[in-house]
Fold this protein.
Amino acid sequence: MPKHQQYIGGEWVDSLGSDWWPVHSPATGELLAEVPLGTSADVDRAVEAAQKARRILAKMTVFERSKLLFAIADAIAQARETIAHDLAQEQGKPYQQEALGEIDAALDMWRDAGEIIKHLNTEVLPSSDPAKRIFTIRQPHGVLGVITPWNFPFTIPTEYLCAGLAAGNTIVWKPSEFTPLSAIHLLRCCERAGLPAGAINLVIGDGATVGHAISSHPGINAIGLTGSPATGDKVARAAGAKPMLLELGGNGPTIIMEDANLDLAIQRTAVGCFANAGQICDSTERILVHEKVHDQVIEGLLAAIKTVRLGPSLDVASTMGPLNNEHTAAKVDRHLADALAKGAEILMGGGRAEGFPTDLYYQPTVIDNVSADMLLNREETFGPVAPVLTFSDMDEAIAMANDNDLGLVAGVFTQSMERAIYMGEQIEAGIVNINEVCTYWQPHTPFGGYSSKRSGVGRLGGKYTIEALSQIKTLVLDTSSSHPL
Ligand code: NAD
């Protein structure tokens, strides 16, 4: 049974604590490994190593940092299949259909950050005083604390790690305790690529201990968190006024208007509901359908669901794996039970699937007659559920989409250009995809929660992440002694 260590100051070291966390596969129930449950003393050590390494990073030019990022991408490419195998086992997603793609997406992000940093110019600004020259330079925040979830255990950390390093930060990273093996693989790739000691430090542990110690540590200069809105609140409270990038939950409304291309809308909406077993922050969490096309959409969804192959992660025929953990599965149970009690109708699926090695396999589900007061509509469900609500005109659809405290990504299907633009402007979400589903995102484009909602603060994606994880300094130079006026 592999027993793993923390990675601090360029070395694999034992945790200062004595507790261990068993990593079970949600697909097979098998015990895959044991990892240390870190302590706040581990975080202290990691912060000290990261603070020390700031000097090394500060001496590297952006071109050297870029080379390092490309070398890390190459190391990931070499280990692609091994990482995807372990990721599929610990996360639950299908190896062939999704895990390999996650590694490839991460690879692109490392290379992209390596490219972007070489071209990220700053400005020379006009001056109201003829003797002054004013320009800006970009500097790192210092030591970045990164806290990440289990649903994309390789790409989500990559978003912060590649951009954070590109910007010249050093990093203390806590992955989700549910998916630490992907994190260990990522650090091994960084190590093989020549990462300077202390530039990224991995502290495995739980949120209340290690996550809290990172957020509140005076030696952590900025925070990057992807997680639930409740965790976002806790981290923000603990971190105080540090610079922060918070990527939190969503409740993706997908609106299907009466003039939509229905084949396209149904096919893309099904992808939005069932990809990664619905465990994506920008999943289609609720489908708002115009009453005139309701029956066709239901019929289409029921046909689409038949193509979903629920099965173990390593079975090449699987298109959807189990949910990652019991907490998540229990939430789906709770949301469906609430909907049934309030009058919704399950048309397909509706509960745990039988005949699999664990109780975490969830039937892809279509549920109709969902109403505004149901948890399925109000909260993020994070499971393979397609909840259908109906509306009778565009304004009602917009009001239903906006009547929610989350606002990350929305989708609208319509063939009217006027409607597309109007709805795109009115819907309160960080991204509105037109004739495309919520889950669609190109990783170099800005992604994040809408202000006034609880889906996060700031934007990540390509240069936007590098900007968020760095600061602009203004330099003012007086030239009057050499150029008398
Ligand atoms: P979570 O909030 O439970 O955990 C996220 C991370 O925070 C984990 O590493 C956890 O250990 C840590 N954590 C928990 N409590 C903490 C605390 N008090 N202090 C510091 N750290 C703490 O979320 P999860 O269940 O791992 O992931 C699912 C959530 O993440 C969903 O809400 C999903 O929408 C969101 N998410 C958002 C995005 C995005 O880009 N906006 C992407 C993926 C997931």
User: Anything to note?
Assistant: The first helix runs from residue 40 to 59.
